[in-house]
Amino acid sequence: MPAPHNSSPPHEHAASARLAKRAAAEAIGIDEAFISTMVERFYAAIRADDVLGPIFAERIADWPSHLARMKQFWRSVLHNSGEFSGNPMVKHIAIPGLTEAHFSRWLELFYANLRQLSAHPPAVQLVGDRARMIADSLLTGIAINREGIGGAKEGRNLPHV
Questions:
Q1: 1, pLDDT greater than 60
Q2: What pLDDT was estimated at residue 154?
Q3: How confident is the model at residue 61 (pLDDT cuts 50, 70, 90)?
Q4: Which of 32, 75, 87, 151 has CB 3.0 to 4.6 Å from 147, enough for a Cys bridge?
Q5: Is residue 135 classed exposed, middle or buried when 0-12, 13-18 and 19+ CB atoms within 10 A define those classes?
Q6: How far, rounded to the nearest angstrom, does the alpha carbon of residue 78 sit from its chain's CA centroid?
Q7: Is residue 89 within 8 Å of residue 26, measured between CB atoms?
Q8: For residue 56, is it within any domain?
Q9: Residue 109 placed within a domain
Q10: How many domains, the chain?
Q11: Which letter, b or e, does each residue of 85-123 get, where b requires 16 or more Cβ atoms within 10 Å of its Cβ?
Q12: Lowest pLDDT segment from 13-22, 61-70, 126-135
């Protein structure tokens, strides 16, 4: 006997999955206010950092716009909101000289900010894991762009939360 057919349209399933992901994140304290504060504090630390600050300063003139975009990005990552469109890989590939050291520093600042913002271990783990996945993906994409397939394991040494 064939399995019963799910009669829900695919868009209903996607909407349901989005709501479930957001509800799970919010249940551990990752709501819109958390994301907004996280982004604001993190990029304040980036701007003050001796290593990363100059890289961002060369490329970002309109910080309020950049922060709003980063909040959209993180809501898309953590809530599956679908509101971010763009290609972060292309933006990062265009920056000459980015290395594992830059991404490690980015993660160190990110993790420090995250730990200051949340004492809830599941929230720290979830957000930290997403940040590491993003850093690994960007670093690997940059390496593959520069070196070919040999760069495919580039992010293996990045720190974990």
A1: no
A2: 66
A3: very high
A4: 151
A5: buried
A6: 8
A7: no
A8: yes
A9: yes
A10: 1
A11: eeeeeeebbeeeebebebbbbbbebbbebbeebbeeeeb
A12: 13-22
Whether residue 151 is contained in a domain is answered as yes
Report helix angle 32-48 to 63-79, nearest 10: 130
Q: Which of 50, 128, 41, 146 is nearest to 92 (CA)?
A: 146
**Whole domain around residue 92: which residue ranges?**
29-157
- Mean residue pLDDT of the chain comes to 91
Q: Which two tokens stand for residue 77?
A: 């990552």
Coil, helix or strand at residue 70: helix
| 87 alpha carbon, distance to own chain's centre | 13
Are 84 and 75 spatial neighbours (Cβ–Cβ below 8 Å)?
Answer: yes
For the record, the structure tokens of 39 come out as 């982004």
CATH number at residue 57: 1.10.490.10
Helices 121-147 and 100-117 cross at an angle (nearest 10°) of: 170
Kindly report, residue by residue over 149-158, the tens digit of the pLDDT.
876 776 778 8
Q: What is the pLDDT of residues 108-151, one digit of tens each?
A: 999 999 999 987 899 999 999 999 999 999 999 999 988 888 76
- 5 in a domain, yes or no? no
CB distance 93 to 81 below 8 Å: no
Q: Which residue has the higher pLDDT, 13 or 78?
A: 78
